[in-house]
C-alpha cells in the first residue's frame, strides 16, 4: 500500500525490554503499547525495529516477539501506519527477516496499518551503485510488500544515489525514502518522484528541512519518541508560514537534542540514538519521580546509566519543565 501523505511525522519507536527469571531479555509489549499510546496524538507514523529500536541488534526470537506489538491492545489505532525494519548486513539476511514479517502480516488482519518493509543498502564501504541496485532488485523480486528505502551510511558505509533510487521507483514498490545521513545528497541531487514519500531522519534543522522551505515531505525522527509535541508544532508552524516562530522552536529543540546526543555518545558500547530517547521517555513516563523506578533495560542486558538520565533531565528543563507525574505514574 502507499503511504498516507498526511502522515508528516514518523518515529522509529523505541523497543522496551523486560528480564525474565532465567536472565533472558525479552520484549516488554505492555510498556511499548503505553509509550505508543502516549505519543500517538502527535505521531501517526511508526517504524518498528528501526535503528533507534535496536533493529540491528535484536536476535530472531526478539524480532518475532517485537512483531506482536502490531496486535497488542491499546497500542496502534486507526490513525496509525507503520513500516517494519529488516535491518541486516546482506541481501540474504534481509530476505530472512522480510519472510518472517510477510508471513506474520499475511496471517493476520492488521486493518491496513502495515505500510511496508524498511530496508537499507547492503553493508560495506566497497559497495557500488550496481551492487546496491542488485540488492534492492533481489528484495523486490522476492517480496510482495511496499519498500521504504533507508539511507544510513553511518552503518552501511555506502549510499544509494538519486539515479539508482529513480530507477527503482519505476517499479512503484518504493513508497518511502528516509535519509539519516545528514548530508541529504539524494534530495539535493534533485530526486523528487511524487510516488516516493521523502522523510528526513537526521536530527536538527527540523523547520528548515520540510516543505515548503525545505525538500522533505515529512520527518522520521528518533526524537519523536519524546519530543512529538515540539516536532508536531514545528510542522504546523511550517504549514502556516510562521517562519520566525517555527525556526526559533526548531533551533531550541536542535540545541537540546544535540547536547543530549553528544553526552550519549560517551556511553560505551551502546546505541546513542536509543540511549538518548530512552532517557527522555523514562522521564516522560515517570516525571520527576523517575529515580524511584527501575532504570530502563537495554537490549544488551545492562541498564541505562542513572547519571545520563540526570543529565538529560537537566537539559529537558531548559526546554520545558519536567512534570511531577508522567504518563505511567498518573
Summarize the structure.
The protein is α/β, with parallel strands linked by helices.
Task: Detail the topology: elements first, then pairings.
Blueprint: E1 9-12, E2 17-19, E3 25-27, H1 29-39, E4 45-48, H2 60-67, E5 81-85, H3 91-106, E6 114-119, H4 129-141, E7 147-151, H5 153-156, H6 162-169, E8 174-179, H7 185-188, E9 197-200, H8 206-209, E10 218-220, H9 228-240, H10 243-264, H11 272-286, H12 306-319
Parallel strand pairs: 1-4, 1-10, 4-5, 5-6, 6-7, 7-8, 8-9, 9-10
Antiparallel strand pairs: 2-3
Helix pairs in contact: 2-3, 9-10, 10-11, 10-12, 11-12
What does the model show?
It is a single chain. With 330 residues, this protein is of the alpha/beta class. The chain has twelve helices and ten strands. It has a single domain (9-319), classed as Aldolase class I (TIM Barrel), CATH 3.20.20. It has helices spanning 29-39, 60-67, 91-106, 129-141, 153-156, 162-169, 185-188, 206-209, 228-240, 243-264, 272-286, 306-319; strands at 9-12, 17-19, 25-27, 45-48, 81-85, 114-119, 147-151, 174-179, 197-200, 218-220. The strands form two sheets. Strands 1-4-5-6-7-8-9-10 form an eight-stranded parallel barrel. A two-stranded antiparallel sheet has the order 2-3. The longest helix is centred in the last third of the chain and has 22 residues, at 243-264. The protein is globular, with a radius of gyration of 19 Å. The model has no long low-confidence stretch (mean pLDDT 95).
